[in-house]
Amino acid sequence: MEIDANGVRLRFTIHGAGEPLLLVHGFPLSGRMWDAVVERLAGEFRLIVPDLRGHGGSEASDQASMGDYADDLVAVLAGAGEMGPVVLVGMSMGGYVCLEFCRRYPDRVRGLALVDSRAEPDTDEAAAKRRETAERVLAEGSQVVADEMVGKLFAAEASSELRDAWRAHMAATSPRGIAAALNAMAERPDSEPLLRELEVPVLVIVGAEDGITPVEVAREMAMVTGGELEVIPGAGHMAAVEKPAEVAAALAEFARRMGK
Ligand code: MLT
């Protein structure tokens, strides 16, 4: 489905019926990263899967902020006919967006699952590197980021087919979308205080071999929220792609409790 919102055309898919879950992808990916999880959950839940602006089939803007992405999600939910609270599921950058969504729209959140994500902002050094990479991507193309990211996304045991497929997927993301996302991540606020004060149930999922948002970061988030931690063996930063059955099972168990 497609919807015009906030100056861009946004694409999203809807699967199944039941308690609504909004699945938000990471950088520089698309809603397709949830395919194998969706397949396992669609018999029991209603899954709304957007492509963030500038990713997948959604139109890019020159600039974006976490606030823009969060506002876009509200529009997607309206397009899906969801006007009440939903279970938010965000992978990595999708988690940053979900935290911003919680800041802006607390009444629309029934529960929050952070998958291979973190709450703290970039260091000044990391933010400067992102801005530099954004310039390079605009000048040289998305391959720059695809090549850099692919080595960091997966556990050691991931197949070369999986790596190649996702490298190609990232390289197909629009340079404008990638540059805007890099700048948005560089500018994102500290969401740790927000996380500490969240009143909804939290689930933290992390690949045991995640080198981008490591297990210690996940453990800390679970601790400060009083939430649960699910560490997925044999998975890296792409746990939802590498071990979809385990990630789907953890999400299902969490979402079932939200529905009661
Ligand atoms: C992601 O997977 O969304 C990114 O690795 C997040 C980040 O670079 O901070």
List keywords for this structure.
single chain, 260 residues, Rossmann fold, 8-stranded mixed beta sheet, 11 helices, binds D-malate
Strand content: 15-25%
Secondary-structure element series: EEEHEHEHEHHHHHEHEHH
Shape: globular
Helix fraction by DSSP (H/I, runs of at least 4)? 40-55%
Counted up, domains total: 1
What CATH calls the topology is Rossmann fold
Question: Average pLDDT value?
Answer: 97
Supply Rg: 17 Å
What can be said about this structure in brief?
This protein has 260 residues and is α/β, with parallel strands linked by helices. It has eleven helices and eight strands. Helix 1 crosses helix 11 and helix 4 runs antiparallel to helix 7.
How would you describe what is shown here?
The relative contact order is 0.17. This protein is α/β, with parallel strands linked by helices. The protein has helices spanning 35-41, 66-79, 93-104, 124-140, 143-153, 160-171, 175-187, 192-197, 215-225, 239-242, 244-258; strands at residues 2-5, 8-15, 19-24, 45-50, 86-91, 109-115, 202-207, 228-232. It is globular. It has a single domain, classed as 3-Layer(aba) Sandwich (Rossmann fold). The two termini are 29 Å apart. The chain contains 11 helices and 8 strands. The mean pLDDT is 97. The protein has an 8-stranded mixed sheet with strand order 1-2-4-3-5-6-7-8, sandwiched between helices. The structure holds D-malate.
